[in-house]
Amino acid sequence: MKDKIRTAIYPLVTVAVLVLAWQFAVSEFSIEDYILPKPWLVVTSITDGFRVGGFVGHFWATAEATVLGYVLGCGLAFLIGVAVAESPTFDKFVYPCVVALQSMPKVALAPLILVWFGHEIESRIIMVGLICFFPMFVNTVVGIRQTDPELLDLCRAFSASRRYVFFNAKLPSAAGEIFAGLQIGVVLALIGAVVAEFVASERGIGHMIDSAAVSLTVSNMFAGVIILAVMGVIGTATVRFVERRVVFWEGGTVRVNLEQAS
Amino acid sequence: MSRTATGVENEAGAVAPAPAILSAENLSLVYPTRRGAITALDALDLSIRRGEFYSLIGPSGCGKSSLLKVAAGLLPQTAGTITLDGSAVTGPRREVGVVFQRPTLFPWKTVKDNVLLPAETLGLDKTAASARAAELIGLVGLDRFAENYPSELSGGMQQRVGIARALVHDPEVLLMDEPFAALDALTREHMMIELQDIWMTTAKSVLFITHSIPEAVFLSDRVAVMSARPGRIVREYEVGLDRPRDLATMADSGFAALCGELRGELQFDL
Ligand SMILES: Nc1ncnc2c1ncn2[C@@H]1O[C@H](COP(=O)(O)OP(=O)(O)O)[C@@H](O)[C@H]1O
Ligand SMILES: [Mg+2]
Known about the structure:
The structure holds two protein chains of two kinds. Chain A is an all-alpha fold. Chain A has two domains: 1-31; 37-261, MetI-like (MetI-like fold), CATH 1.10.3720.10. Chain A is built from eleven helices and no strands. In chain A, helix 2 packs across helix 10, helix 8 (162-199) packs parallel to helix 9 and helix 9 runs antiparallel to helix 10 (218-246). The radius of gyration of chain A is 23 Å and the shape is globular. Helices cover 32% and strands 25% of the residues of chain B. Chain B has helices at 64-71, 111-115, 117-121, 126-139, 155-167, 185-202, 213-219, 253-269, and strands at 20-33, 36-49, 53-57, 79-84, 87-88, 96-99, 173-177, 205-210, 222-226, 233-238. In chain B, the strands form two sheets. A six-stranded mixed β-sheet of chain B has the order 6-7-8-3-9-10, with helices on both faces. In chain B, strands 2-1-4-5 form a four-stranded antiparallel β-sheet, covered by helices on one side. In chain B, strand 4 and strand 5 form a beta hairpin. In chain B, helix 4 packs across helix 5 (155-167) and helix 7 packs across helix 8. The interface between A and B is medium-sized, with 25 and 30 residues. The complex binds adenosine-5'-diphosphate and magnesium ion. The site of adenosine-5'-diphosphate (ADP) has 13 residues of chain B, from strand 1, strand 2 and helix 1.
């Protein structure tokens, strides 16, 4: 527990130092607020923004599109990944296409998605889903395929059904990779949401940053970036928290009972 | 107690005194690979009697694991027949329990659930299987670890879980592929004695693959020596040492003589 607190404190020290340096630079070189606002000004824009400036609405708009798109994209990626890993037919027909699509920059599709799905939340959800689909898909396929062949031989030797093998051997073997996909997905989902908001939306943190740029309220732009960073950190931490509980047998969580083992 | 070890070579075509539980006739296995065909087994004959502890020893790469996989129904042979309990092996069979060189446990299952795997896959009665699993876990000395995960056990303990698992559905035949190869010398000796105990209480027929001569002699009723690839059985030895054998058996002159003879046969082929 003490260690945990300590590992949380070290990066906070770094942040504090950076903020101090920022404050120092701004006052030392008398930089104007519309170029680089003082840290304090950014803090007040965040608090004011949440109290009266409509940040709450922006925050929820982004959160909604991100979460829904993430669940949709990752869920579909998982299902199609399972199909590809389990069926040679799907593998032959689908896998090469998906891998080829993967190298395309998905954000380039944003205007097209807009044309097809309009300016409402649907477009943003689809943008988010599309962008977090690929890593999740590839990780699911790779994870299932890297199941220890000897474990599979063993299952076969004991006449295990395909269903048994999938749920008891392949899926747990792939869990680490799948969670890695979910982890990357969180970050990509936010990127997708912000890009979609830049392009089209009237709401969301991305839109807020965009309009702050137009009116040159740089402190609001900083506020937006910081809010997004916090959302990313919360999302990633949530995935990691769930992972540690689900994939308990991997990495560092081994509960060795020395008294018993002796 | 008289301990006499006599290496008796079986004449080809000698009639086995008890009916065979596992037999191979003219068995061949060829792996087609990109760089051409690899003949792992070539016209191999073998016959294991019911209740017998039969060891197979040979240089590495001679086809021992391949033979075990064919016997387990995991790999189809290229030619010849392999018969288990009177009928040809065409796929995995429930009369068989397998133990690989690595423990091959499910890291996400407790010891007990690992042991229960064959009971689940073969759809055995849950209550009976659970009681039997508990009994076997006791037999391999892991009572206190039934609810632990494999990563919390030592290599030797993990291998014992694998042995208990192979027995939970009460198979006729136990196929073991170098199960103690990864263990340190002391643990290995313990495991040999334990396996003998288990074999004597459960009365299984065992095909035991090893590359350790003392291990083969200590455990077996018969030891077969395989040639280098393509694998054939060049000679079989009866081990006439009294049971139960213990660590003192290994200091016995008959034991040493038989080990020496086997070593000579193996070197001849290397
Ligand atoms: N899946 C495979 N594909 C091609 N060759 C193989 C395969 N498995 C084993 N072999 C070859 O067959 C021979 C026998 O292998 P194996 O049965 O594992 O020997 P052993 O268990 O006696 O060490 C070796 O030369 C090995 O390289
Ligand atoms: Mg081998």
